[in-house]
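Methods, example record. To illustrate the input and output format used throughout this study, we show the complete record for TMED1 protein. The sequence lines were provided to the predictor; the line carrying C-alpha cells was produced by it.
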Amino acid sequence: SVEPTEAGDYKLCFDNSFSAISEKLVFFELLFDSARDDDDEEEEEEEEEDGDAAAAEPGDALDVKIDDIKESIETMKMRLERSIQVQALLRAFEARDRNLQESNLGRVNFWSAVNLGALLLVAFLQVLLLKSLFQDRGAPR
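The corresponding predicted structure is encoded as:
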C-alpha cells in the first residue's frame, strides 16, 4: 500500500537485479481508493440530512429519488469494476498456473525420454552380456 503524497503521475519500477539470467513472471494489481470518494460519501450524508427536511416538498421528492437512483448506479458501477478486477486477477493466476504446468510438462517429457534411453541402453547391454556368457569360446577339441 502506498499513500500518494503528491498529485500527478507515478511510475512503477520492477527491479530484476537479483537474477537477470532467469525468467520471472510478475503480477501486480493497482487499486485506486481516492480521497474524493470519502468526500463524496460525507457530502451524500449531509445531503441526506438536508434532504429529509426538504423531502416534504413535492418537487424535492423527485430530486431525492433521482439521487437515490444515482447512488444505486454508482454502487453498482463500483461493484462491477471490482468484479472486473477480480476476474483479471483470476485470469493472471490461471495464466501463471498454466505456464508452470507447461514448463513441468516439458521437464517431465525430457526426463522420461532420458530414462527411456537409459532403460534401452541397459537392456541392450544385458542382452550382450548374456549372449557372451553362453557363447562357445573355442572349447578344446
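Annotations derived from this record:
The helical segments are 35-54, 58-134.
The chain has two helices and no strands.
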